[in-house]
Design goal:
- By secondary structure, the protein is mostly helical.
- Helices cover about 60% and strands about 5% of the residues.
- Helix 2 runs parallel beside helix 4, helix 9 packs antiparallel against helix 10 and helix 10 runs antiparallel to helix 11.
- The radius of gyration is 23 Å and the shape is globular.
Length: about 425
């Protein structure tokens, strides 16, 4: 019989196989899926609370035991993604365990359009009139709920702000073609940005071995200018890869599960135009984890420390999410650095609140934009350095011969030769 201590202690990672999948990942997903079914049912609060420790333990075992890299150092970024997914699973399960009322799915209309407001503002959506969701329906709904982080089409996402979009009025074919074009663009932009970052130092942080972005051999001005450029490029790379993965999911779920374009509104709201930290983190950056940062972090601490505690709580949970992701790269997770970045974002938002109380005006306009990006980029240097040290920056998502930029160059050369423009 396996002891509890053995389950809780870190184990050597094992490569993914049918056996390890059923032993480690499947129990985590089944308990998570069961929680998604139960949260739609009345009078299940005690069952959900009892199931929560089992779900969290299974998620921890899967995240700390499975090796998606198959022992290949360059593929450790896959373990990073796995840890992020399982931490998200844990946050969602915790939120569902303490939900005060059953979740209800909204009937999505084909002509639904999103605006820069809450998802509950449109009259073209209707809540189910059934008092208690039948079990068979709840199981089917859980298929959507288990992967629907923002709650599009559910009543619990009423306060979520969705960027403006006309996706809901498009035909599926139009939407798929546009999404495919965006996917190709984001893949190309991500690859080019990552390549540019690696080229700054191919032997150190540009490699899977990792290294610091702060070159001690350079004078201070050159050292920190260089690290800042690397930080900005790394931020763009993060944006591009998140968008790339989102477009892949949109295409897959529409083709395989007959979803509608209205269920895949834009993920970001032009974050580069943010004129305050509050607007950047509050709605312009992606809101995939908003509900869970609030439920797990902000709400508990706000009961003790008011708004300040709520803001700190949300960013503490965000720091924990990113720390466990980096830790799975097996180079140390740099908890102080990673959590420190997010704590300082909370501090910045609290300072904006103090400014508003003292001056009766919000942080906004040109000076607000300058303040926002100086604060994010300054503290971003440290988290980008952590990414670089663990080898995340040097990881190659695409094989060298199949990098989008390489394929684009080959394609251009082919057509230049075809039309006689070669030397």
């Amino acid at each position: 019989m396996v002891s509890l201590g053995r389950l809780l202690l870190s184990q050597e990672r094992v490569a993914l196989s049918a056996s390890t999948f059923s032993t480690f990942f499947l129990p985590a997903f089944v308990s998570y899926f069961a929680m998604g079914v139960l949260v739609q049912q009345k009078h299940t609060a005690m069952i959900r609370i009892a199931l929560l420790p089992v779900t969290l333990l299974c998620a921890y075992r899967a995240g700390s035991s499975l090796d998606l890299s198959f022992g290949i150092p360059n593929n450790r970024f896959l373990n990073h993604g796995l840890s992020l997914a399982l931490f998200t699973l844990s946050m969602r399960s915790t939120t569902w365990a303490f939900a005060k009322k059953p979740y209800k799915r909204i009937v999505m209309q084909q002509n639904k359009t999103f605006n820069d407001d809450t998802t509950s503002s449109s009259t073209s959506n209707q809540l189910s009139s059934v008092d208690d969701t039948p079990l068979s329906t709840a199981i089917w709904n859980a298929c959507d709920l288990s992967v629907n982080c923002r709650g599009i089409g559910w009543d619990w996402a009423g306060s979520l702000r969705i960027p403006k979009s006309s996706y809901g009025t498009m035909s599926k074919l139009q939407f798929l073609l546009i999404t495919l074009a965006k996917l190709l663009f984001y893949a190309l932009a991500y690859d080019a940005t990552c390549g540019a970052v690696r080229d700054f130092s191919p032997e150190t942080f540009g490699s899977i071995e990792g290294g610091t972005i702060f070159d001690a051999s350079l004078p201070p001005f050159s050292r920190y200018t260089r690290s800042t450029i690397v930080t900005i490029l790394s931020g763009w790379a993060a944006y591009f890869v998140i968008e790339m993965v989102y477009q892949i999911h949109a295409i897959g779920f529409i083709l395989l599960f007959k979803q509608t374009p209205s269920q895949w509104p834009p993920l970001f709201d032009a974050p580069w135009f943010s004129t305050s930290l509050t607007s950047f983190w509050g709605h312009r950056w992606h809101q995939l984890f908003r509900e869970y940062f609030i439920s797990v972090g902000a709400r508990p601490l706000s009961y003790l420390l008011g708004r300040t505690g709520g803001v700190m709580g949300a960013f503490l949970v965000s720091g924990a999410l990113h720390y466990f992701g980096l830790k799975s790269m097996e180079r140390g997770g740099y908890p102080v650095v990673v959590s420190g970045f997010f704590i300082m974002q909370a501090v910045g938002i609290i300072l904006e609140g103090m400014w508003k109380r003292c001056t009766s005006s919000r942080v906004d306009g040109f000076w607000g934009l300058l303040w926002t990006w100086l604060w994010i980029v300054f503290w971003g240097n440290f988290i980008a350095d952590a990414w670089a040290r663990v080898g995340l920056v040097g990881s190659k998502t695409f094989p060298d011969d199949y990098r989008p930029t390489v394929l684009l160059v080959l394609l251009l050369k082919h057509y230049l030769n075809l039309f006689g423009f070669s030397q």
